[in-house]
Specification:
It contains 3 helices and 5 strands, in the order βααββαββ. The longest helix has 17 residues. It has a 5-stranded antiparallel sheet, covered by helices on one side. A hairpin with a 2-residue loop joins strand 4 and strand 5. The protein is globular and about 45 Å long. It is of the alpha+beta class and about 140 residues long. The N and C termini lie far apart (about 55 Å).
Length: about 140
């Protein structure tokens, strides 16, 4: 069996939820509290909340009984990953929701399927450059 996800030498947090209609809202709120402890005053809260919400919604929609949200930071970036822990035969993971992929502070995103289930992830810039003034 391949190794499970391991995060070392950086701050990380794992949050677990029942895969139900309230999971995305709960996950976004708890993830925001967790990341607030990491001191990123320039983190775009709207983008962060929308990312967590969108990834968890995708995980719940794909099936399974529970969803976990994995958070980690390194070099002024925050990784958000939602995993649906679905066992057995699985279809391919659906794409990252468009509303997440187009966010200004999302540097990269993707989805994959492995032995733990389907995973959707996004890497956010926690210290984005200021918006350019409109000309």
């Amino acid at each position: 069996m391949p190794p499970r996800l391991v995060v070392t030498s950086r701050r990380a947090r794992v949050l677990a939820f029942r895969a139900d209609q309230w999971a995305a809202k709960k996950a976004a709120a708890q993830a925001a509290l967790a990341v607030a402890e990491w001191d990123y005053p320039l983190l775009d809260e709207h983008d962060f909340l929308k990312t967590v919400h969108g990834l968890v919604r995708a995980a719940v929609a794909a099936g399974g009984k529970r969803v976990s949200v994995h958070l980690a930071d390194q070099d002024d970036k925050i990784l958000v990953m939602a995993l649906n822990h679905q066992n057995g035969e699985q279809d391919a993971t659906g794409a990252v929701p468009t509303e997440v992929a187009v966010l200004r502070t999302v540097d990269a995103c993707g989805a994959h399927t492995d032995h733990d289930g389907h995973a959707w992830w996004a890497l956010l810039d926690a210290r984005p450059r200021p918006k350019k003034p409109l000309a």
